[in-house]
Amino acid sequence: MDMRKKVGLRDRYRLMTRGLGWEPTYQPMDKVYPYYQFEGIKIHDWEAWEDPFRLTMDAYWKYQAEKERKLYAIIDAFSQHNGHLNISDARYVNALKLFLQGITPSEYNAARGFNHLGRQLPGVGQRVAAQMQAIDEIRHAQTQIHTVSHYNRFFNGFHNTQKMYDRAWYLSVPKSYFEDALTAGPFEFLTAISFSFEYVLTNLIFMPFMSGAAYNGDMATVTFGFSAQSDEARHMTLGLEVIKFMAEQDPANVPIIQKWIDKWFWRGYRLLVLVALMMDYMLPKRVMSWSEAWEMYFERAGGALFEDLERYGFRMPKYADVSLKEKDRYSHEAWSALYGYGAATGLHSWMPSESEMAWLSEKYPESFDRLYRPRFEFWRERQQQGKRFYNQSLPMLCQVCQVPTWFTEPDDPTEICYRSTEYKGNRYHFCSDGCCDIFKDEPEKYVQAWLPTHQVFQGNCGGASIPEVLDWYGVINGRDNLDYEGSEDQRNWEKWKSADGQAA
Fold this sequence. Notes:
Distance between the termini: 70 Å
Strand content: under 5%
Shape: globular
Strand order of the largest sheet: 1-2
Structural class: mainly alpha
CATH architecture: Orthogonal Bundle
CATH topology: Ribonucleotide Reductase, subunit A
Number of helices: 23
CATH superfamily: Ribonucleotide Reductase, subunit A
Low-confidence stretches: none
Helix content: 55-70%
């Protein structure tokens, strides 16, 4: 063979994926790959799946290295020119805190899962794609930490994010999502992360967040977002192709996958409450409302997706209709609760200004003025009287999604939605029918859930008082938490901007 002959893209991909695999000879397949059969998914031909990008590892490294050079040049320039002074307002930084506390460690958990897939899937093409995605996820976590590290020099709340992720009550929402997926089988993990999270829901994280960062003057965050977005395109394609691949392999796979889609849509939707908070309340300059984003990225794009998947036998996820009923109150209910529990978090909260409430009224004409403006105005009045309310306890968490049970009934926004069931003599509590159904399907898994507030009451989290628990969380009481008004972050920001104006 003439080695000087140029190899085509298809052949190069085949040589660098299928060509690197081998059939085991002294151990049977079920012992080499012990996890791929127990979920009941039937795969008859692993070779039928092919990465549409046909990306090989040598091309991957070259492509990523070029992105790294551009990204870190911008991060360095941002730091050298005190880019933090160009953001719209210091309140915006709390959106970055929530991102770094909740999303960045989850990127690392995703890497753990894809590393596991790279070892456990018998298909060589799937293993290579999983290994590259594992590297992507590690890179995303690193670039996010490096980008936001500049803010850690000037603002509170960034110093202990991994400990907070492992311990804080409100961060158990993303942590439990990814650990639920990590402890599933390989095909359910792919459905949870690659399809439900990466394909169906990821645009609701990265697109509004990066647009919001740009609109609020945070160009370093915009850059790491766009640097990750090309990776996300590959991840989304992997998710969709894997779903189709499993459905085409055997019709018996379809009902199993549909059950996972139902579960992980609902779990992902509950996780996205963090994004709803950011979009409607944490951005001083808002791009769009949570309701508008949900309509754009799920109702339209998701609706078109599931219309396409009907030919495989799939339908819209169960309880998708509940998300449509909740979209006009999702963020308001969550912000109300976060404001009340502001003493027990690692970020600041506040009441929206009059102009911000006018924006919320415009975006939510059917719900905001009727249900939420009166309570916000009352709380703001109390705060101005020096009676800012802080709940001195922690909220009850849903046994499955671990979001506090603060949402209302789908058809009645004046009544808290609460479900419960008994299992082996114990009663378990849920925020919704969706989470209650998930528990009933896999009770032995969810009875093991580590619920932070339950652990506090059992004496496992540093003590019985909020200051003791905050110390265990790694939160500096009085600096990282409480109201933005009067905080050290606010005082520093006003001092910097005053000096900046004098210099100008």
